[in-house]
Amino acid sequence: MSPPTITLAIGAETVLVERAVSAVVNQARRADPGIQRTIISAAAEDASHALREAAAPNLFGDAGIVIIEGVDGADDAMATVIRDMLADLPDATYLVFTHPGGTKGKALLDAIRAAGAEQVDCPTLKKGRSTVDFLTKEFARHKRKVTADAVAVMYEAIGHDLGLLCGAVSQLCADIEGDPITADAVHDYFAGVAEVSGFAIADAVWDRRHAEALRMLRQAMLASGSSSLGPATVASLASGLRTLVRVGGMPPGASEADVAREAGVPPWKVNALRRQWSRWSGDQRRLAAAAVALAEADAAMKGGVGEGTSLDADQKLLAMEILVAGSAR
To answer: What predicted TM-score, i.e. pTM, was given to this entire model?
Structure first.
């Protein structure tokens, strides 16, 4: 089955745009493995010339896919060539346009749509629930099941970089056999990745799961032996502490949405944070002591604050064990 003759991928989410373009190319190549692909930036100085050349009939009548990137940047000459092609599309030629969204180049967009383009929307995903829902669907796309906790661990640890998240999903689905994929499986799989390990350890510390926090720290040490483990873990602990204090400072009757907005977290995480705060609210002296210990560890991981206070690699790991064990108890 051949792809649409004209495709418009519109939106600023790079991963989704690339996926839409790849889908057209792959579909065309299944129908004709020898099809040629040409990529043209609409904003390039010679874009109009390159497009005329790409659309010109060849001696053998070979099929071709022409990908015009960023049609919002097309000048008058390029816009004219695009309109000419839309009015008289060469045989065996497929056009794929990308546009970041917005009103720039609207007249050209309208012309592309009027020519019968199949539009693929690639909007920037909002942080929080929208991205979590996307990740759940991404696992389903790989024909795998995943727990909500596992998705939350990935999102919290890796952040909002959709490319990294999709890559992580692909890795997990390829290497983990059990279904559903669980939070423990994600922790174990990324144990050697300092940033991911740091998040998991911090979560256990502020949950006051002492033994589990220490176990994960030692597991991360064995798996990575990385000089980035200490700084990444301290940074994760500090981020968790700041969020915890923001949640604790909210009025008792504050709504979930208000707490999420103040703490800078997605609403679905508020209940877990409130649970964490309940474990510290009656022991705020120890929480203050943990904050001081965290500041001292941050300096130690970065070379010390005075002459002769820098630590070697083994001393840093010991300092991390003391910090995690002391804070989580």
So the answer is: 0.60
